[in-house]
Amino acid sequence: MDEELFGPDSFSDSELEVDNMINGAESHEIDSQSASDPLISSNNEPQKTVFPSIPGLLLYKNLLTQEQQNRLVDAIINEGYFERPESNQAMCFGTLPSFIMRVVDIIENIPSIFPDEIKNRKPLFDQSIINVYKAGDGINSHVDLDRFEDGIVVISLLSSCAMKFSPASLVNKELGYSDTSTATDPNEVVSVILRPGDVLAMSGPARYDWAHGIEATKIDIVGDERIVRKVRVSITLRKMKENQFLDQCADKS
Ligand SMILES: O=C(O)CCC(=O)C(=O)O
Ligand SMILES: [Fe+2]
Q1: 52 is in which domain, residue-wise?
Q2: Domains in the chain: how many in total?
Q3: Sign of the Cα pseudo-torsion (120, 45, 59, 154, in order)
Q4: Could you tell me the distance, in angstroms and rounded to a whole number, from the CA of residue 9 to the centre of ligand 2?
Q5: Using a 6 Å cutoff on CB, does residue 129 contact ligand 1?
């Protein structure tokens, strides 16, 4: 991992940033559901935000405690995936590292995160991608490749950002995905603020009928909220359609 980004000195800054992001200026979203801890309902389901125009998109805000987030970031640093300054992505296939499996255990216990046929598959995930975004980095709008099953999760760490969802009908057609898009307005864009500790789940229409991406910008403006990006780490969890890969982890820049 880049010394400049994740060296001991800057990591203390990052920890402070996590503090600030969770407790400070960014927690004033106009949303009755923004709470410092996920509220657990009687059926053991953490509080979730749904998006009426995007069925299958669920946001579990602040699902991971700050300690769990710090442990994940520590583990990612200790694995050494990002020791080379140019590395910004690490992939694992097959058996996922134990520090990721601890989060998978939490996700598996959320009753309705996915429809049953996804929830009950074994394993739930066998591929992970860790992405490191410097402030200003983004990811082009895309629908995740068809080689991955339905039921995808994105865990956000260290910095907030806005992920934009837009109807993917054209992309879908080209890739041979579902052509029965649930998006009614082809120009609709839904911005979802992802904060450290949030877990985003995509299945069904959210996975196939909508593309998602993160603009390459240092500042996101969403409604009356202004998000100044810092270094962000995300962990994407998916299941391969076929077991064509051996257990392995690799870093890729
Ligand atoms: O980094 C993120 O938040 C999203 C990553 C993503 O969309 C992907 O890996 O397919
Ligand atoms: Fe994606």
Answers
A1: 3-252
A2: 1
A3: negative
A4: 31
A5: yes
